[in-house]
Amino acid sequence: MKILVLNAGSSSQKSCLYDLDGALPDIPPEPIWEASIDWTHHEGFAEIKVKPKHGKVLEEEIAATSRSEIITHMLETLWSGEDPVLKSPSEVDIIGHRVVHGGAEYRQSTIINDEVKEAIAKLAIFAPVHNPANLEGIIAAEKVFGNVPQVAVFDTAFHAHLAPAAYTYAIPTKYTEQGIRRYGFHGISHQYCRDRAASILNRKAEDLRLITCHLGNGCSLAAIRNGQSIDTTMGFTPLEGLVMGSRSGSIDAGILIHLLRQPDMDVEKLDRILNRESGLLGISGISADFRPVLKAIAEGNQQAQLAFDVYMHSLRSHIGSMLASLGGLDVLVFTAGVGENAPLVRERACAGFEFLGLKLDLDKNDQRLMDVDIAMPESLVRVLVIHTQEDWEIARECWHLK
Questions:
Q1: Using N-to-C axis directions, what is the helix angle for 390-401 and 187-201, rounded to 10°?
Q2: For residue 281, what are the CA distances in angstroms to 42, 159, 267, 343?
Q3: At which positions is ATP bound (predicted)?
Q4: From CA 234, how far away is CA 323, in angstroms rounded?
């Protein structure tokens, strides 16, 4: 079975093609084709990179006409150019799309039809940057592949089983009835890490109490029990929860009221401050990327040190809240850019939970290994570093629905 995965963002598009023969493998296979589009590096142009498994990497820069035309051009490299991996588009069996927001209605991955497309468009009110881009990828794929089945894999679906006490905000009910509630995000990554953790430990996911830490530029935690997300840190939007690269995370809502009363402030400016100018970047004044922040710390920069300390305080506090929801902990998982590549973050996070009997193997932690247990043998809590593979999780959802 050939499964095409499209992961569309506001400024980029990532795609890959898997060729599965027989049963679904436990370990993610290498795609036979990968491609990406970036609209941000050179204004007015789109940068396209295509990497077939066997063949030469294609890199080109073309005038950014309509986004759908650029996406179509990228998809056509599957069967055209120097190193095609298909003979024709008809060889694709199913197409999976990451869709950021599925609202309260979509609690699992769903075959796309007109009703689903209308819902994705309607839910753009909650995800105005992402859902329209996701829908754009769906429509572009329809034009190229015709009636090939397409699947919407919702980032919010993994958190759809939160209890009302976990998803309800303490605001007047009339606003809750408008859809203002905690949805949670990064669900595809949290779901992948749940299953990969169970595989690494040779256990059933349903038998484990896990906290999965997705730490990238955006950060979120999920508390997982009986295989389901029962609590998470992101809420109505991805702004809530942990301190992140450029997002503030949770702050006193009274601050927002205070800022909006200032004469030079408006809603758009406040949105930019909280989402793009805060977090590590806002405190350090250096970067939303951990690497230059850590370099500055080594050079004695006090603001960089404060940024790190605030980040870690937020991370440990939120892990503690997830721990309370679970009533105990069997597995702590670190994933995504920071989670996978910042040993110091993992070390400092784990240091706060030694009272649970968690003992980190510092040598393993520093080796930057992937998909491994980095806890000491006698540790009562297993600590895993997992390379998250959202594209493969989308492909797995397609496989189950085909």
A1: 90
A2: 23, 29, 20, 20
A3: 14, 214-218, 289-291, 337-341
A4: 16
Structure-token match 């805060």, residue found? 278
| 81 annotated ligand binder | no
Could you tell me which residues are beta bridge partners of residue 3? 18, 94
Give CA–CA dist 121/131, Å, rounded: 7
Strands (E), 169-261: 210-215, 219-225, 228-232
* Per-residue pLDDT reduced to its tens digit, 318-349: 999 999 999 999 999 999 999 999 999 999 99
pTM of this structure = 0.93
N-to-C CA span, the chain: 9
- Token pair of 329 as six digits: 């902990």
Counted residue by residue, the chain has a size of 402
Q: Quote the strand ranges of 93-251, DSSP E.
A: 94-99, 110-111, 150-154, 210-215, 219-225, 228-232
Residue 113 marked ligand-binding: no
> Cα separation of 307 and 347, whole Å?
17
Reply yes or no on whether 361 is catalytic: no
Q: What is the pLDDT of residues 77-122, one digit of tens each?
A: 899 878 888 888 999 999 999 999 999 889 999 999 999 999 999 9
What CA–CA distance (Å, rounded) separates 365 from 207?
25
Query: Cβ(245)–Cβ(218) under 8 Å?
Result: yes
338 is in an annotated binding site: yes
Is 364's pLDDT higher than 90?
Answer: yes
Residue 99 is encoded by which pair of tokens? 């869709």
Q: What is the mean pLDDT of residues 238-265?
A: 95
Residue 232 confidence (pLDDT): 98
Sign of CA dihedral 190, 195, 197, 203: positive
Q: What are the DSSP E strand ranges found in 104-207?
A: 110-111, 150-154
CA angle 139, 143, 146 (to 5 degrees): 110
